[in-house]
Structures are given as C-alpha cells and as structure tokens.
Amino acid sequence: MARFFTLASGSSGNSAYVGSSEAGILVDAGISCRSILAGLDAQRVPLEHIQAIFITHEHIDHIRGLKVLMKRLQVPLFASEPVLEFLTANDAVPAGTRLESINGESVPVAGMRVSSFRTSHDSIHSLGFRIETADDRRIGICTDLGFVSDEVRRNLSGCDLVLLESNYEPAMLMNGRYPYYLKKRIAGQKGHLSNEDCAAFLPELVRNGTSRIVLAHLSKENNHPDLAYQTAFSGLCNSRMAMGEDYILSVAKRSEPGECLIF
User: Fold this and answer.
1) At how many degrees (to 10) do helices 66-73 and 33-42 cross?
2) 40 lies in which domain range?
3) For a surface tag, which of 58, 105, 117, 255 has the fewest beta carbons within 10 Å of its beta carbon?
4) Which tens digits make up the pLDDT trace of 138-167?
5) Do residues 263 and 162 touch, judged by C-beta distance below 8 A?
6) Which region, left, alpha or beta, applies to residue 240 given φ > 0 means left and ψ of -120 to 50 means alpha?
7) Could you tell me if 228 and 195 are in contact, meaning their C-beta atoms sit under 8 angstroms apart?
8) Looking at the 3D structure of the chain, how many domains does it have?
9) 134 closest CA partner among 25, 45, 2
C-alpha cells in the first residue's frame, strides 16, 4: 500500500515522503536535516528506507537541509539539469553526490516510477512530480506555480492523491505588509497559486479520480489554514461534491509531520 506524509509544508520549508512500508523517496529537503530525521522517526520510517531525493527547484525553502542530509543518506539526487548545476555551483550538495537529471521521463526508484512536469515559477527551473507505485496508486506533488497550466492538468489528472499549493489569500496579500513588487511577484504568472485558483481546480481533479487532496505551501504571512480549507471546501461543495464520499481534504502542517495517509 502507498504511504504519503509531509514533513513540513509552507513558505518556511517543504519536504514530503512518498513510498511504501519498505522503501520510499523524499521530495524536497527544505527544513533542517535534524527536523527531517525526527519527522521520519516520528512516522516510523527508518532512514535506510529512503532510496532517493527529488528536488522541485532551488529556492531555500526546498533545499535548506539538503547538503547535511545527503551526507547522511548517500542516495541519488534527482532534479532538472539547471537545478543540479545550481546546487553544485553553490556548494549545496556534498562532493561525490550522485546527481541524476530528470526532465519529463519516468525513472524507476524505490519500487515506484517517478516522472516530472514543469510548473510556472520564478526559479531556474521548477518541477512537479507524478509518482506511480507498484500497486498502481498515483500521487501528484505540485507546489510553487503561478497558474494551472495544461501540462499540470495532464500530469495531475487521474492521481489518487494530490498535494497542491494553496499559498495565499488575495485580500491578505494585497492588504499586508509586503512591498508592492513582492505582492506583484507572488500573485503573478510565475509566483504562487492563490486559495481561489487552487479551489477552482479541485473539482476537475476529483472528477478525474482524485480522492485525497492535501493543501500545501501556505504562506505564513498571507494565509491561514482555516481560510485555505474553507475556500477549497466551498469550491468542491459548489460542484456538488461531498466530503468523505467523493474526496478527503486536509491541510499540510507548516513545521511538523502531517498525518500518514495509507491507501
């Protein structure tokens, strides 16, 4: 059976586990190595079960603990070629790390197959991931995107579980303390996904087979878990979809492991 949980999710740091009871992968390492190890231990996942790390992009909230963690794990590191070049040039990975470029193709790891897709974000190169387990479960991970592109739609369609960004509440962002240029960046086509844009996409996901939705990467300054949840819930209710029957909805925790979803 597939297992999924977040170790942390938000503008302060991101990391998630996908796998089984025998082996798995980490997607991003944006919190300290100590926090990642503590989170895995809390979920009773031995360190040796981690077979690879996949990085969505090079921003610090996705790679903060990467170098120290790679020293401990000594497993392959997958990312796009531009991101691998950045990590190497900026001393963000230990010497001798096995670097594997991923660019849309499906790669086998930990008894699963992982493929990547582009997301629109102001980074060197930003990816989402679609993971297919040995028992035909499909997990989509998609954070850091300014809008839902056709490529995102194709790759998340049919996923049993989707971790999707619900980063900011527009009114909180516009009335908040951020300078105008940063507000414009966040709300732009290469920024982040708002609660409303996330909610508008969810009915399509459910119609195409998604039964578990985890809202992720919430802004500490410009959002609140209750706001993100209620906006998503309302969007699904307006499409006549019932919580507990058509889908299960949750919000990833900011700085501690979330519930382990087994399906």
Assistant:
1) 60
2) 3-89+96-262
3) 105
4) 999 999 999 999 999 999 999 999 999 999
5) no
6) left
7) yes
8) 1
9) 2
